[in-house]
Every structure is written in C-alpha cells, then in structure tokens.
Amino acid sequence: MALFSRKRSASTPLDGVDVLLADLDGVVYAGPGPIPHAVESLNRAESEGRRLGYITNNASRTDVSVAQHLSDLGLHTKSDDVVTSPQAAVQLLSGKVPTGSTILVVGGEGLVVELEKAGYVVTRSADDAPAAVVQGFNPDVAWTDLAEAAFALATPEDEGGIPWIATNTDWTIPRDRGVAPGNGTLVSAVHTAVGRLATVAGKPEAPIYHAATSRFEATKALFLGDRLDTDIQGAQAANMDSVLVLTGIDRPKHVLAAPEYARPTYILGDLRELFEPYPEVTQRGGVTTVGTARVRVTEGLNVEILAEGDRDIDLVRAGAHAIWATGRQIFGFTVPDRLYRDTFHRP
C-alpha cells in the first residue's frame, strides 16, 4: 500500500471507496458532542452511496448505545454498523477459553454485554478462580478493579497462569473537556504490578479491521482516524487506505514525525476535505510541493519553507512528505515552528 498516495488533481479521497470506516472519539465526536463538520460530511458520503461503519477501541459502551449516540447526533446508524474492541476481544478469547468459563472483567457494560452474549460468566473478583482476565476502558474503573486483575494474573501464563486480554491500549482518550488518560494507562498499571504483557484485541491490530471489511463486504474501504499509533498503524497493518483527520489527538507535529508504519494515505484538516480534490505531491530537485506550499530539506538537515502556500493543511502535507522522503527520523532535523503551527480544530 502506498504510504501517501500521489493522486491526480481531479481525485478525492473518496474516489472508488464503497465502505467508509470511521473511528469515533476525535473523528465523529469528543465526549457527547459532535466534531465540527463530521456528521454532515458522513451523511453526505452515505447519501452518495457509500456504506458507513464505525470501529471503536472504547470498550465502555455497547454497540447499541454507541449507535444510539450516533443517531442522536444525526447519523443513520444501527448497532450492526458498529464494530467494537470488546467484540474483537471476545473473538480472541474464544480461541483461548471455552464458552461457559468465568472471566474476570475490568471495564464497563460494553465488555460485560459482549462476554455474556458469547456465553461467558462475568466476575469482578480474583477469588472466583477466573479462567482469564479481559480488560477494557471504563471511566469508573477503580484501584480495586486493577488490584483484582493483578491478583488473578500473579502467575505468568507460560507457568500455568491465565490469559490476559486487553481490548486496546490507547494511552489517551479525547473528551469534551480535553484529553484524558485512556485504557493503555490502566493496562500499564496492571503490567507494572505483575510484570506481564496483555494480548491486545483492538487497534492497532489488524483483526478488528478485517472483521469490519468482512461484515460490510467492502471491496475498497477507507479508514478515518485521529491517531497515528492506533488508527493509522492498524489500517496500514490491514493493508487499508487511511485518513488522518486533525480533529482529535494527533497534531501537525506528530504527522511530521510519523514512522513509516503509521503514515496515512491522506491528511485532512476536517472531514469536509473528503470531497475536495486531493492535491498531488511532487518532489523535484529536492523540493516538495503540495498545492502552493513548497518545502525542502537541505544537506545540513534544515527543513526550509520556500512558500507557505494559501492553505495550512497543504503546508503540513508538504512538510511531512519532505521529511518522510529522507528516510530519517525528525529528531535529526531543524524544523521551523511555522511548519507545525496548529491552526486546526482540536477537542
């Protein structure tokens, strides 16, 4: 898959796409409220004949409650349109632990419902001799919940201990008041106590993407995300084109520093740009041009802006491509502050 597609000027990111898959937090909403321009853009994509699906690592809610939230925001969403990390976790669990087993849950309703639907018995106590621990995000997770998980996981799995599955390991989660700690911080707390690593079911692992493309019978899917280390890395692992939209966690400075395995096909300021012709990226004589923005990297590893252009998003695109083309990490460059000035909506 191309890491950053060179498209004709008449082409938009949606050309040829039959299924549009979107992350939720930071792409569609932040907390209870919608991200500006997200709902109307997604509805437009659907009205033009594309199937919409949603992939979320947030394990605190059920697919039914997520679909209701999206419907309340003005999207035409059913529970079958939502693929959750608890669903992926339960699928992974089924290959390790037989149905009917007792599972210690650290997390909320979204995880409990999926486990019970699959025929497992849920407990919150290590004293109930659970056959596995499954951990997912919930804002009400307490120290006592983490402690129970640690007690249950005291013996390493290769020494006869039980499996430990995490729905996801996102370090942060966007909320309406700002950025808050995500499930990765809670998983890390248990890891620190027991010295074990969890098996991760959700993004950036590929199975949750494959499950979505299979469910929606996609021939060409495009994934919309706001995080390089989960959304974009996972889409690339699943060989799927991706959009990084600058309305959530990752900002222009993160885009410039993106490692090869987490570079998006497209970079957008907001979802309205899905319908705009995507500018061609050209590199000639050491100069990277996107639209009217022009950037070059000197032999002394200075990143120079030759022309800011008339759109901030094109300058970010040009800067990213100029740096990526060197094959070097950004830490070795001198980068002007203007290149990563953040003028885009954030939670």
What can you see in these coordinates?
The protein folds into 3 domains: 19-83 and 204-275, 3-Layer(aba) Sandwich (Rossmann fold); 86-200, HAD superfamily/HAD-like (Rossmann fold), CATH 3.40.50; 281-340, no CATH class. It contains 10 helices and 19 strands. The protein has helices at residues 38-47, 63-73, 85-94, 109-117, 143-152, 183-194, 207-215, 228-237, 252-256, 312-324; strands at residues 19-22, 29-30, 33-34, 51-56, 82-84, 102-106, 121-123, 132-135, 164-166, 172-175, 178-181, 199-200, 221-225, 241-245, 266-268, 281-284, 287-290, 293-297, 303-307. The strands form 5 sheets. Strands 5-4-1-13-14-15 form a 6-stranded parallel beta sheet. Strands 7-6-8-9-12 form a 5-stranded parallel beta sheet, with helices on both faces. 48% of the residues are buried. The model is unreliable at 1-9 (pLDDT under 50).
How many β-strands, per DSSP?
19
Say what the CATH topology of the largest domain is. Answer: Rossmann fold
**Largest sheet features:** 6 strands, parallel
How confident overall, as mean pLDDT?
94
**Assembly category:** single chain
Report the C-alpha radius of gyration, rounded: 21 Å
- Indicate how many domains the architecture comprises: 3
What is the highest CATH level, the class of the largest domain? Answer: Alpha Beta
CATH superfamily heading of the largest domain: HAD superfamily/HAD-like
- Give the low-pLDDT segments: 1-9
Q: What level of helicity do the residues show?
A: 25-40%
What's the helix-strand series?
Answer: EEEHEHEHEHEEHEEEHEHEHEHEEEEEH
The percent range for strand residues is: 15-25%
CATH hierarchy: architecture of the largest domain = 3-Layer(aba) Sandwich
Helix run count: 10
Shape: globular
Q: How would you write the strand order of the largest sheet? A: 5-4-1-13-14-15
Distance, first to last CA: 30 Å
Could you say which structural class the secondary elements and strand pairing correspond to?
alpha/beta
